[in-house]
Every structure is written in C-alpha cells, then in structure tokens.
Write a structure and sequence with these properties.
Elements (H helix, E strand, L loop, with lengths): L11 H14 L3 H16 L5 H13 L4 H44 L3 H29 L5 H6 L1 H17 L4 H15 L9 H11 L7 H15 L8 H11 L5 H13 L7 H31 L5 H5 L2 H29 L3 H16 L5 H18 L2
Helix pairs in contact: 1-4, 2-4, 3-4, 4-13, 5-12, 5-15, 5-16, 5-17, 7-8, 7-15, 8-15, 10-13, 11-15, 12-13, 16-17
Length: 392
C-alpha cells in the first residue's frame, strides 16, 4: 500500500478546517501551495509523514490535473481514505470557487463600466508577463536549462517542446491527440512497455474515442470540454491555459480574447488553485450552472486520477514507461503554453502602455524575488485605472 496505516492524530474536522483555510488565504500558485502543505502538515502539525507527502507529490506530478488540488486530495486519502480525500478536495476548492463566482457576477454586472474596463486593461497586459514567466519556470523545472548539456541529453524532449510551440502558433489551437502522441513517442523511444506491440490497435481505438465530441446542449458541451481539460492537461495550474484558450476562444467562441485574459487574471488574484478560473469561465458562459458544471468536470478527473491509483502507487511510480509517457506529454504541453502566450500576446498587446505593462511585469517577477502574482495584479489594476480614468 502506498499510504501509511498508522492511526491519524487529527480528525476529519481538523482536516476540513485546514484545507478550508488554505483554500481561502493560500496565494502564490501551485508551487507555493504544495510548499505550505509540507510546512504545515509535515513539519509543524506532523499529521503526514515525509514519505506519504513525497508519494503524494510524485503522484500529483505524474497524473494529469492541477498539482496542488491533487496533492490535497492525496493527503486527505492517507488516513481517511475516500472520505478524507473528498473532504480535503472540496474544502480546498470551495473557497476560491465562491470567490470567482462572485467576481463573475460583478464582472457581468459592471463589466461595461469605465472603471471595470480600466482595471482589466492593466490586468490583462500584466497577465501576459506572468504567464511568460511561468513558461520559463516550467521549462527549467520540467525539461532543463537552456544550455548545450541539456539540449544534448534531452534532445527529444526539446524537440517535442519546440513542436508544441510551433503547432500552437501556426494552428492557434491545441490538440489533445498531439499531447498524447508526444507522450507515446517519448515512451516508445525511452522506455517501451512489453505490451506495446500487442496493443497498437487498441491504442488507436482509444485515441479516436478520446476526441469524440457529444452533441449535447450548452451545459453538456461545457461538461465535456472541461472534463477533457481536467483529464489531459499535465503540469501546474497555468498549463491548462492553452487548452482552455483553444476551446473557449477559438473552437466554441464562448469568450472574447479580452474576456479570456480577464478570466486568467481572476485566477491569479484569488487564493487556492489557479485552475479555479474554470469556474469564472463557466459563469460567463452559462451563469452559476455553467460555473458549477465547469468546476466539477475539471476537478472530477483530478480526483479520480488521485484516489484510484493511491493504494497501489508505489508500484506504479517505479514504472519507467509511465514516467516516460508523462515526460513526453509535459514537454509538449509546456511548449503549447509558450505558443499560447505568443498567440494571446499578439492579440492583447495592442498599444504602447499594454506592451510596457507586460514587459515590466515580466522583469518585476524576474528581479523582485518576493513579489507575488496577486500583488502584481493589484498594481497593474491601479495603473490601468490611472491610464484610463485618471488621465482621461
């Protein structure tokens, strides 16, 4: 079994209170959130052992979906199994979901007012800089540094990464099949499984089924699209951005380019998992039912991918083919994220002020180490107000 069987020294109530608090005040994105969990639950409270935490983090990195939410679900599973995982997941996500829905209500009601437009004028440009910085960090962490040694030793990952950029920029969309194909290519080359040759036909059938689009009503379309987003996107919260952009802006035209940037900005300025932006998007598309369906559809795969393999994870984690498959997908997804930044930037940076805000945001994140994204978003909002209202 992957998890410790020792009796818990905390109650389900303690668990729910902790994750409610973290979901309410936990700013800083997935890396910061997983750090808070280690500090609080392993070092200070000693509810979770170091071994269980590391196994949970490894599973969260291997499986698709938002990193911090998956780790929270796994840590809830450690001592209280399905009930604990469910409570931890809901408690962690609910606070930020409520916040983005309230922001969605305000956005829809006041979006036409000059002050609201001015705020998101500054925020939208800052988001470009934030995502660009996240691209760099994800690249360094998941693929390697931009040097000859890394390019030589991990050349295939860099090829998949570059292909992700090029395909996204040219097609201005992201295909699930490309991500899966990248994972399969890397797996077959680096660590081909023994059963690979026997099951080629079955794999092709599964890939065809994964791209089927049901002809449902609007909520059905929302549910299916966001289920795919939660099931096929690997990496940190921002890794979902290119997939969402391709669907809600390009394929379905549910949001305009500016509304999409605003949705990403809302995720940055609220605590909890960045992926909760799906609630804001769902609200803009179909009100509260849309927000609820989008959030449930996105987080359900994350929940299942964490809970189902949890009891057997020690054995799964050692499988080199699984690791290679995930590495290949991750390289392609990060490349797609870089490509999405380029596409979004070409449409969103349309004057000198927005260009300056975007570049300044990127430089600020590079050189001001303690600067957090919510702080940067707030400054950008104030700058937008001054530019559009103060000097009008």
């Amino acid at each position: 079994m992957a998890t410790t069987q020792n009796k818990a020294n905390y109650s389900l109530r303690d668990l729910s209170i902790y994750f409610l608090k973290l979901g309410t005040i936990g700013f800083g994105g997935p890396v910061a959130l997983v750090g808070y969990m280690h500090r609080d639950l392993v070092e200070q409270k000693k509810w979770i052992t170091e071994e269980d935490y590391k196994e949970g983090l490894a599973l969260a990195q291997l499986a698709p979906g938002p990193l911090a939410a998956q780790l929270a679900i796994y840590l809830g599973f450690v001592h209280y199994r399905i009930i604990g995982a469910t409570i931890a997941g809901f408690a962690f996500v609910i606070p930020s979901f409520i916040m983005v829905v309230l922001l969605g209500i305000a956005y829809v009601r006041f979006g036409g007012l000059p002050w609201m437009q001015a705020i998101f004028y500054g925020i939208g440009a800052a988001v470009i800089g934030i995502i660009a910085m996240s691209c760099y960090k994800l690249t360094i962490k998941s693929i390697g540094k931009f040097n000859k040694s890394s390019l030589r030793s991990k050349w295939l990952l860099w090829v998949l990464y570059g292909a992700g950029i090029i395909i996204t920029v040219i097609t201005q969309s992201e295909e699930v099949l490309f991500f899966i194909g990248a994972g399969l290519v890397y797996m077959f080359i680096k660590a081909p499984p023994k059963w690979a040759k026997k099951n080629v036909a079955a794999n092709i059938v599964l890939l065809q089924v994964s791209t089927y689009t049901a002809d449902w009503g609007l909520l059905g379309k929302i549910g299916w699209f966001f289920t795919k987003a939660g099931a096929f996107v690997f990496g940190s919260g921002l890794a979902i951005v290119p997939f969402l952009h391709a669907g809600v802006v390009q394929e379905y035209a549910w949001l305009s380019e500016q509304e999409f940037l605003d949705a990403v900005a809302v995720a940055m300025v609220t605590p909890g998992p960045v992926v909760i932006t799906v609630g804001f998007i769902g609200y803009l598309v179909a009100g509260f039912p849309g927000a609820t369906v989008a959030a449930l559809a996105t987080f359900l795969p994350c929940y299942l991918f964490t809970v189902l393999p949890a009891p057997y994870f020690k054995r799964i984690a050692k499988n080199q083919s699984v690791k290679a498959f995930v590495d290949g997908i991750t390289a392609a997804v990060i490349g797609a994220l870089v490509g999405a930044v380029i596409v979004i930037a070409t449409r969103s940076i349309y004057d000198v002020p927005t260009a300056l805000i975007a570049v300044t945001s990127l430089l600020a994140l590079i050189y001001i180490k303690k600067l957090q994204e919510p702080q940067l978003i707030l400054v950008a909002a104030l700058i937008g107000l001054m530019l559009k209202i103060g000097f009008a």
